C-alpha cells in the first residue's frame, strides 16, 4: 500500500517542543531548559558532523566499500539531544541506527564502519564507552537494558544526583515485539532505572506506524504504570530537556520512563531499501520543512549567537571528518578467515585449536592462499 500524506506528520497537542521548525524558541511548563549560546552551538556542530558522517557512510556503501549502511538522516536531533543528556556513568543500549548517540559517547565514527563492512561487531569496549554494541535483533536490547538497569538498582546505584541510569534506543516497529513488552513489564515492576527511548520515525522498513498501533506510542506507558512523554524528535533542545528529566528521574529511583521522539526517517531504511516503492514524496517534503539542523541554524542566526566564521568552521570540520572516514574505510584491512577461531571463544580449547590447524593446512593448499593475510 502506498500511504498518502498522513496525519503522522503532526505530533498532536501533547508534543513537547522548545524550538519550532521556524527556529522560534517556545516555552513549556514542565520541560523548559536554558542553554547558553555555546551549548547550542555545540549541539548544532554535533548534528552537522554526524549528518556528514552518515552521508559519507551512505556514499561509501554505494561505492562498494561497505556491505550496507543504516542512515540516520533526519534523526540527528533525537539522537544528539538524548546522547548529550546522558551523564558519563549512565549506560546506553542502541539498536543499529544510533550513530549520533555513539558520537556523544565519544565513539569515533570510524569504529562503526567495520560493522557495515562485515569485519567486526563494533570495535569499542561497551563498558568503557558506556555504550553497548549495536543490536540488529529488533527490540532485544530493551531486555538487555532492563536487566542492566535492574542490576543498577539492586547494587544500590540509584537514589540521588550521583545515581546511574540506563537508556535504551529502539524504533516504532520494535514496539510490536514481545521483547519490548516484556522489558517494560519487568522494568515497571522492579522500578528499573531505564529510559525507554523510542524513535518513532514513522516507518519500520515499509510498514507505516498505522500498522504498529492504534494509540500514540507514548500513551502505552500508562498500561505499564510509568510516565510516557511525546517529544518533538526534530527539536534537539526538547529532546535534551525531556531526556535529561527522564534520566534524572531514573537516577533518583523514579524510573522507568518512556519517551517517544516523534521524528522521521528521511532516507531509506538501509542502503538495501528503496522507499519510493512504498511512500509518497509529499510526506518527505512535509518533513523536510521540520529539518532538525535548519531550525537550530536559524535560531543561532536570529539570536546573533553565531556568525559566518562559526558556520564555516563547522563546515570545515565536517569536510575533514568525511575525508578521514573515507581514508580509514578504503584502507581498512580485511581480516583473515582464521580469525573466527581466535575471536569467538574467550579461551582456546583443544578442539578449536585442532579445527584451526586443519583449516590453515587446507588454506595453505591454494596457490594464492588468503589465510593469515591482510589483503
Ligand atoms: C527480530 C527481528 N525481526 C525482524 C528483523 C528485520 N528488521 C530489520 S529492521 C526492521 C524494522 C524495524 O523498524 P523500527 O523498529 O521502526 O526501527 P527503524 O529501522 O525504523 O529505526 C525489521 C523488521 C530483525 N532485524 N529482527
Ligand atoms: Mg521506525
TrEMBL record:
Q: According to the entry, what is the taxonomic lineage of the organism?
A: Bacteria, Bacillati, Actinomycetota, Actinomycetes, Pseudonocardiales
Q: Which NCBIfam families match?
A: PDH_E1_alph_x
**What are the Dehydrogenase E1 component domain coordinates in residue numbering?**
45-318
Q: Which cofactor does it need?
A: thiamine diphosphate
The answer to whether the entry has keyword Nucleus is no
Q: An example of a Gene Ontology BP annotation on this entry? A: branched-chain amino acid catabolic process
Per UniProt, the keywords (alphabetical) are: Oxidoreductase, Pyruvate, Thiamine pyrophosphate
The protein here is known as: Pyruvate dehydrogenase E1 component alpha subunit
Amino acid at each position: 500500500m502506498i500511504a498518502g500524506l498522513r496525519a503522522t506528520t503532526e505530533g498532536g497537542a501533547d508534543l513537547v517542543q522548545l524550538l519550532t521548525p521556524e527556529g522560534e524558541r517556545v516555552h513549556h511548563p514542565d520541560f523548559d531548559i536554558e542553554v547558553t549560546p555555546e551549548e547550542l552551538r555545540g549541539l548544532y556542530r554535533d548534528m552537522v558532523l554526524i549528518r556528514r558522517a552518515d552521508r559519507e557512510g551512505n556514499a561509501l556503501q554505494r561505492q562498494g566499500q561497505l556491505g550496507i549502511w543504516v542512515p540516520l538522516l533526519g534523526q540527528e536531533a533525537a539522537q544528539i539531544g538524548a546522547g548529550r543528556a546522558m551523564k558519563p556513568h549512565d549506560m546506553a543500549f542502541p539498536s543499529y541506527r544510533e550513530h549520533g548517540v555513539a558520537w556523544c559517547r565519544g565513539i569515533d565514527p570510524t569504529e562503526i564502519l567495520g560493522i557495515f563492512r562485515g569485519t567486526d561487531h563494533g570495535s569499542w569496549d561497551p563498558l568503557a564507552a558506556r555504550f553497548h554494541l549495536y543490536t540488529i535483533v529488533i527490540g532485544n536490547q530493551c531486555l538487555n537494558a532492563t536487566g542492566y538497569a535492574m542490576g543498577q538498582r539492586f547494587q544500590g546505584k540509584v537514589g540521588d544526583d550521583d545515581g546511574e541510569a540506563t537508556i535504551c534506543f529502539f524504533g516504532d516497529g520494535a514496539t510490536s515485539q514481545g521483547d519490548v513488552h516484556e522489558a517494560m513489564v519487568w522494568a515497571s515492576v522492579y522500578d528499573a532505572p531505564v529510559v525507554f527511548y523510542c524513535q518513532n520515525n514513522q516507518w519500520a522498513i515499509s510498514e507505516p506506524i498505522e500498522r504498529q498501533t492504534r494509540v500514540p506510542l507514548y500513551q502505552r506507558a500508562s498500561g505499564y504504570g510509568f510516565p510516557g512523554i511525546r517529544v518533538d524528535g526534530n527539536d534537539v533542545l526538547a529532546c535534551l530537556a525531556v531526556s535529561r528529566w527522564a534520566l534524572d528521574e531514573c537516577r533518583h529511583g523514579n524510573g522507568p520512563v518512556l519517551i517517544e521522539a516523534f521524528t522521521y526517517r528521511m532516507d531509506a531504511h538501509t542502503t538495501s531499501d528503496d522507499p519510493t516503492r512504498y511512500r509518497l514524496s509529499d510526506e518527505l517534503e512535509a518533513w523536510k520543512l521540520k529539518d532538525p539542523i535548519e531550525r537550530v541554524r536559524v535560531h543561532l542566526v536570529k539570536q546573533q549567537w553565531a556568525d559566518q566564521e562559526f558556520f564555516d568552521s563547522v563546515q570545515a570540520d565536517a569536510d575533514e571528518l568525511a575525508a578521514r572516514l573515507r581514508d580509514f574505510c578504503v584502507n581498512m584491512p580485511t581480516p583473515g578467515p582464521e580469525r573466527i577461531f581466535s575471536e569467538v571463544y574467550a579461551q582456546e580449547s583443544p578442539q578449536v585449536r585442532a579445527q584451526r590447524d586443519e583449516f590453515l593446512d587446507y588454506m595453505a593448499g591454494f596457490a594464492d592462499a588468503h589465510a593469515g593475510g591482510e589483503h
